[in-house]
Amino acid sequence: MEIDKIIHEPARLRIMMILAGLEQADFTFLVTTLGLTRGNLNSHIEKLESAGYLKIKRSFKGKVRNTSYQLTQKGSKALAQYWENLDAVRRSGQP
Amino acid sequence: MNNKQNNKSQDQNTEKLKEIPKWTRKYAQNRTLTTFVLIVMICLMSMVIGVPLALTMIAFMRGNMILFWGCIAVLAAIFISLIILVSKFGGKNRGLIDQRIDKWIYRKEGTATVPVPKLTKKKKWSDIVSGVIILICVLGSMYLSALGYISFKYLQPISAIYFVPFLVFVYFLQRPRLGPLVLICPILYTLHAILILAGVPIFFTGNLGILNMLVPLIGYTFLAYVIGHVYSRYALKKLKGLTHLEGEAANGD
């Protein structure tokens, strides 16, 4: 049973869990909710994006620029699998 | 022993993390201040149009032509402003005003949205049909009330027959965008109707009789949104309690 190391990091797990409850969230929401530094959040987002778990949406509505983050289908599946694996590990009492 | 306790507390912490999506959704569903401000703006706009319109009619009937033309000028200015407003925030820019209000109110918290139900052809038509039915019911009961067929006292209880199912229908149509707290409005509207039927004098009479539907509807909608907002504060606090990272986890990778 392998635990996904990308998701297993506390900050990234929380980012994924926040986005799992939403359609999308922006950078400010993630920064204030997680209490991370902006640079740190950026690096976690980059890692999740490069793994294909997260999608960055840049849009304009009028003159207002909007950057939001959304969990991809691959990300949702990976997150569900992560919990399944973690629960199995906990049940079996493995470290 | 210590190891066992550590494992137990770790398990509890892990279980708590599973609640993050639930509280995030609850928070996002109850970010009601934007809609609240929009409703206030619509009410103010109705007043801004309604007062000079009523004054125009009164001035005309009394033959006060100075006041009449003054009101016509004010109304013309209001309509020109409305046209400018619609051209700026309508069409392609639909939703921009909501977004700007949202960004202004929640600038410190950022944006979090729950999925908006997809607008299928069937849904679009059901929106239009239900809207037309409600409009017919409202105008019909006001007309019957003006003719004296419905007493002002019973205007609200009768309107509850169509308003309550309509509001519940809107909730189901807008799920998961709207949380169950918006149902406070139809519940209170029903209770209001029951109290009137039980003989409690919570209605307007005379010239104000026409407000019997409007005041409870707007009042309970406001109340539902205020409760929603308070709940969103609670949900955010819960969420931050689950997600806030401190020390190494917050600063390092």
- Note the total helix count of chain B: 10
Number of strands of chain B: 1
Biggest interface goes to: A-B, 36 and 40 residues
SSE series of chain A: HHEHHEEH
Percentage of residues in DSSP E strands of chain A: 15-25%
CATH fold label of chain A? Arc Repressor Mutant, subunit A
Structure class of chain A: alpha+beta
Cα gyration radius of chain A (Å):
15 Å
What is the strand content of chain B? Answer: under 5%
Helix content of chain B: over 70%
Indicate how many domains the architecture of chain A comprises: 1
> What profile does the largest beta sheet of chain B have?
none
CATH architecture of chain A: Orthogonal Bundle
Q: What's the CATH H-level superfamily name of chain A?
A: Winged helix-like DNA-binding domain superfamily/Winged helix DNA-binding domain
Average of pLDDT of chain A: 90
Verbal overview:
The complex is a heterodimer of chains A (95) and B (253). With 95 residues, chain A is α+β, with helices and mostly antiparallel strands. Chain A has one domain (5-92): Winged helix-like DNA-binding domain superfamily/Winged helix DNA-binding domain (Arc Repressor Mutant, subunit A, Orthogonal Bundle). Chain A is 59% helix and 20% strand. A three-stranded antiparallel β-sheet of chain A has the order 1-3-2. Chain A is elongated. The termini of chain A are close together. Chain B is an all-alpha fold and 253 residues long. Chain B has one domain. Chain B has helices at 2-17, 20-29, 33-62, 65-89, 96-105, 121-147, 152-174, 184-197, 211-243, 248-251, and one strand at residues 112-113. Chain B is globular. The A-B interface holds A 9-11, 13-14, 17-18, 20-37, 40, 43-44, 61-62, 64, 66, 68, 83, 86, 90 and B 11, 14, 17-18, 20-25, 28, 93, 95-96, 99-100, 103, 107-116, 236, 239-240, 242-246, 249-253.
